[in-house]
Design a protein that fits this description.
7-stranded mixed β-sheet; Aspartate Aminotransferase, domain 2; binds pyridoxal-5'-phosphate; 14 helices
Length: 379
């Protein structure tokens, strides 16, 4: 019987420990594993290669994404960096022009000098995507929704286009999580998460997860993971497993809060524009709900002038001025100085990422407290 996702998140892959019945996966804090005899193995040799706690997480995320092979890395960036190594020298990528700043920096500053070229494109315009495809294009890297301006890309259409050109579709699904969207089921070849965000969910752990279906890509990524060793530690794997158990209830509440805040912000005279795909007048609303069951709890908004942005950042109390998203605490960030500082000003400004733009990750506090905090900070 196929279980509902609310059940899947609680029970994970194996759920309880078969040896002891422990309902919480044990933390196998062991670097190495004793072999029963010559040329014999328990299935575990050395924790860079396999670790039972990490394996439970890798199989759990694979199950949640409806995919075959899962991988856990030490951060979202370590996961994305490992993925980029799947491509040979001279490869070209098409990448969302509205994306997490760290990914932009990784591609243009770390990988470009070696071998990788990329074109940054508005992935909501399929004609532009098709025009950007070159003979050496090997993958399209998308985020859904885009970050920070919350545009909605059509994963089915992008994957179909990519397949026609023998190009892979890689989806960074951090902002929605498998509770709300499962890109592999929409045609993507690989899904990646910064599990530091909604999956961990408590602003206490960094982790990156990858899921894919293709046997050859799996072999290659396994080789990269075990050779480079950017793996997730046993305790951090356990923290992410624990976070995942409450993913559904957290996101339900966070989304309710986020929608209420988005609607409230839309009524404030200091606010010029609210970017949240869960608002029914958002340009991508129908497209989002054709692929996903919710808009998540990350939203951005433009204020009328930078002085208001600065005032809000200085005055918020319950809401913390801090980067990151997806956790229990509501956070407000200034993308121009934080998450998107690595993106060149002209590219940033094209997206409207300037000193008027703030991003909120809405958490689990009571909505009345969040709204009064914003109100006092804006007054
Ligand atoms: C945070 C984030 C990353 C990077 O993940 P880390 O866990 O911080 O390394 C990548 N993509 C998106 C969309 C993110 O929000």
């Amino acid at each position: 019987m196929k279980r509902k996702i609310e059940t899947q998140v609680v029970h994970g892959h194996q759920g309880f420990d078969p040896r002891t019945g422990a309902v919480s996966t044990p933390i196998y804090q062991s670097a190495t594993f004793r072999h029963p005899g010559l040329e014999q193995t328990t299935g575990y040799d050395y924790s860079r290669l396999q670790n039972p706690t990490r394996e439970e997480l890798e199989k759990t995320i694979a199950g949640l994404e409806g995919g075959r092979f899962g991988f856990a890395f030490s951060s979202g960036m370590a996961a994305i960096s490992s993925i980029l190594k799947l491509f040979p020298a001279g490869a070209h990528l098409i990448v969302s022009d509205d994306l997490y700043g760290g990914v932009y920096r990784l591609i243009t500053e770390i990988y470009a000098p070696y071998f990788l070229t990329a074109t940054f494109v508005d992935l909501t315009d399929l004609a532009l995507v098709e025009q950007a495809i070159q003979s050496n294009t090997m993958a399209i890297f998308l985020e859904i929704p885009t970050n920070p301006t919350m545009k909605v890309v059509d994963i089915r259409a992008i994957s179909a286009l990519a397949k026609r050109f023998n190009v892979l579709t890689l989806a960074d699904s951090t902002l929605l999580s498998p509770y709300l969207i499962r890109p592999l089921e929409l045609g993507a070849d690989l899904v990646v998460h910064s599990a530091s965000k909604y999956l961990g969910g408590h602003n206490d752990t960094l982790a990156g997860l990858v899921v894919l279906n293709d046997e050859k890509l799996n072999e290659k990524l396994l080789l990269i993971q075990k050779s480079e060793g950017a793996i997730l530690a046993p305790f951090d794997s356990w923290l992410i497993l624990r976070g995942i158990k409450t993913l559904a209830v957290r996101l339900d509440r966070q989304q309710t809060n986020a929608l209420a805040i988005a609607q409230w912000l839309g009524l404030q005279p200091q606010v010029e524009k609210v970017y949240y795909a869960g608002l029914s007048d958002h340009a991508g609303y129908d497209l989002l709900y054709a692929q996903a069951s919710g808009a998540g709890s990350t939203l951005s908004f433009r204020v009328k002038n930078p002085a208001i942005a600065e005032q809000i950042l200085n005055r918020v109390q319950i809401i913390y001025y801090a980067e990151s998203l997806g956790g229990t605490e509501t956070l407000i960030t200034y993308p121009i100085l934080q998450t998107h500082a690595a993106i060149p000003p002209d590219m940033r400004e094209k997206q409207g990422v300037d000193d008027h733009l703030l991003r909120l990750s809405v958490g689990l506090e009571h909505i009345d407290d969040l709204l009064s905090d914003l109100a006092q900070a804006m007054r």
